[in-house]
């Protein structure tokens, strides 16, 4: 009898040790189990370094070493396949060679920046490394002379990247959040963007000698906040419980998409005014016509995608994502060819917002597929933007005046955001946090800055000097505000925002948001 009791006790201890760790800590247990728990934890901690060594130094290699070698072989074989079909185009001085080098250099730059980990400092956005990679390629003579990307290719790729940004903005607009927090969302979306655009126009007119129309164009280039910086940072704070009681992360995530829409619309309006011939009244009527066409056609096609494909088909999210991408890219690029420059962007926004109203669970799947497309175009976009900036072509006083204009405009934006958040139920510290969080710039500036330069080269070469200054300010805006904004959010958030300790009452992040 005594032997049976001991055997049964040994079986219980053995089953306890073999149970998953999640189940082990659920049962409070008794004192004898406590010692076993400590033994399990010690064994786990002791075996972790051994597991890492086996992954990193095994033969054949595993883990990160295996991944690097595999990706290197895939890259080399892809290049060999392209060389078989295209020949000299993938060799140095070839068109495709330059594009491939910029693409992989941008990926490498973003990856290296992610590997930088400083204690007590939040991670920097990878887009900064992508931007610097393109900038380095352009400004090293021995490399830049072999990197030649046709202007048509660069323009089409940036327009496609802008289209994906607009798609994600349209799908990211949540009607429920806008209904519940409409006052704060609209204040954040319209107020700081328009105020910064107007202040940048004034500062650039008196500091950089810009005409008023170019000043407002520059202002709307600067006016957009970057969801690529704001959204991931806010999701990290939201998961930790900071600011969720008052919905601060949710408000900032929802308003970031609308802020981009306002900036892009204002930029297209002044771009048409600058490069269109005719009277101001004619240009205003043309802009209104573009808006009307974009909204009406986008609504019609949005309703169409609500019902086609039907729910009984296979791979419905993939078909919907393909329809949205193909229709939007065709609309944006096609509208430029037929002269309706502002219609394509509005078509994309209205199409995605209208289509998403009827989708429920499939909307998240479609957003994930669109995110996969953005992962391809993001390094292309920032790499190409960095490669547009040449240090040798800048005037001696250009950088100084650009930095002064940028800093003054951002300072006005911070003050206006703080003022607009008054009487919205936030504390003094929370208003400071929101104002500083509404500063980072990246994605929209990367698209709109080169677009002004490209339009000037094609339509009005005598205006290239102004467009180069716009491009320089956009580049500096990304370089200065993106890392500082990420640092402000990551450092000040846990110190300023109150933390909600009950995870069951925390607000869930908006679906499909990873930042763009």
Would you write up a description of this structure?
- This protein has 516 residues and is mostly helical.
- It has a domain of 355 residues: Na+/H+ antiporter like fold.
- α14 runs parallel beside α16.
- It is a multi-pass membrane protein.
Question: How many extended strands?
Answer: 0
Q: What's the overall geometry?
A: globular
Helix content: over 70%
Order of helices and strands: HHHHHHHHHHHHHHHHHHHHH
For the residues shown, what is the average pLDDT?
A: 80
Count of helical segments?
21
Rg over C-alpha atoms, rounded to the nearest angstrom? 26 Å
What are the low-pLDDT stretches, counting only 5+ consecutive residues below 50?
Answer: 1-55, 503-514
Distance between the termini: 69 Å
At the fold tier of CATH, the topology name of the domain at 151-505 is Na+/H+ antiporter like fold
Structural class: mainly alpha
What is the CATH architecture annotation of the domain at 151-505? Up-down Bundle
* Percentage beta strand: under 5%
Q: Largest sheet, described in full?
A: none
CATH class wording of the domain at 151-505: Mainly Alpha
Note the topology:
Blueprint: H1 2-18, H2 21-24, H3 31-57, H4 63-86, H5 95-115, H6 126-138, H7 141-144, H8 151-172, H9 175-180, H10 182-207, H11 212-222, H12 227-240, H13 248-275, H14 280-307, H15 316-338, H16 343-358, H17 362-387, H18 398-420, H19 428-437, H20 443-459, H21 464-496
Helix pairs in contact: 5-6, 5-17, 6-17, 8-13, 8-15, 8-16, 8-17, 8-20, 10-11, 10-13, 10-18, 11-13, 11-21, 12-13, 12-21, 13-20, 14-16, 15-16, 15-17, 18-19, 18-21, 19-21, 20-21
């Amino acid at each position: 009898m005594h032997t049976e009791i001991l055997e049964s006790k040994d079986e219980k201890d053995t089953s306890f040790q073999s149970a998953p760790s999640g189940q082990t800590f659920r049962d409070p247990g008794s004192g004898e189990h406590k010692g076993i728990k400590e033994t399990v934890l010690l064994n786990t901690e002791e075996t972790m370094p051994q597991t890492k060594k086996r992954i990193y130094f095994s033969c054949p290699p595993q883990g990160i070493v295996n991944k690097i070698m595999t990706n290197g072989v895939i890259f080399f074989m892809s290049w060999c396949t392209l060389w078989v079909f295209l020949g000299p185009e993938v060799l140095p001085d070839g068109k495709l060679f330059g594009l491939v080098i910029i693409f992989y250099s941008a990926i490498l730059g973003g990856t290296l920046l992610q590997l930088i980990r400083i204690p007590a400092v939040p991670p920097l956005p990878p887009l900064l490394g992508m931007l610097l990679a393109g900038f380095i390629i352009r400004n090293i003579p021995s490399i830049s002379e072999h990197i030649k990307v046709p202007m048509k290719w660069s323009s089409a790729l940036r327009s496609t990247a802008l289209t994906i940004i607009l798609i994600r903005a349209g799908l990211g607009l949540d009607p429920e959040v806008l209904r519940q927090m409409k006052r704060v969302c609209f204040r954040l979306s319209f107020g700081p963007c328009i105020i910064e655009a107007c202040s940048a126009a004034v500062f650039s007119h008196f500091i950089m000698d810009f005409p008023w129309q170019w000043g407002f164009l520059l202002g709307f280039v600067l006016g957009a906040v970057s969801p690529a910086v704001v959204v991931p940072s806010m999701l990290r704070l939201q998961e930790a419980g900071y600011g969720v009681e008052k919905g601060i992360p949710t408000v900032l995530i929802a308003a970031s998409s609308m802020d981009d829409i306002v900036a892009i619309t204002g930029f297209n309006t002044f771009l048409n005014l600058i490069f269109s011939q005719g009277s101001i009244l004619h240009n205003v009527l043309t802009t209104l016509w573009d808006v009307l066409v974009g909204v009406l056609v986008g609504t019609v096609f949005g309703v169409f995608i609500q019902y086609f494909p039907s729910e009984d088909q296979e791979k419905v999210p993939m078909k919907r994502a393909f329809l949205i991408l193909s229709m939007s890219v065709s609309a944006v690029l096609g509208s430029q060819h037929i002269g309706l420059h502002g219609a394509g962007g509005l078509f994309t926004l209205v199409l995605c917002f209208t289509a998403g109203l009827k989708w429920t669970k499939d909307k998240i799947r479609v957003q994930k597929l669109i995110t996969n497309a953005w992962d391809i175009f993001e390094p292309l976009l920032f790499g190409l933007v960095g490669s547009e900036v040449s240090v040798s072509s800048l005037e001696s006083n250009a950088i100084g005046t650009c930095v002064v204009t940028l800093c003054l405009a951002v300072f006005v934006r911070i003050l206006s955001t703080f003022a607009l958040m008054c009487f919205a139920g936030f504390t003094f510290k929370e208003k400071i946090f929101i104002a500083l969080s509404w500063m980072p710039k990246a994605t929209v500036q990367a698209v709109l800055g080169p677009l002004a330069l490209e339009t000037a080269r094609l339509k009005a070469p005598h205006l290239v000097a102004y467009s180069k200054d716009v491009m320089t300010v956009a580049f500096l805006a990304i370089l200065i505000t993106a890392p500082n904004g990420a640092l402000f959010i990551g450092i000040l958030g846990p110190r300023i925002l109150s933390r909600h300790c009950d995870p069951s009452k925390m607000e869930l992040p908006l679906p499909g948001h990873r930042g763009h």
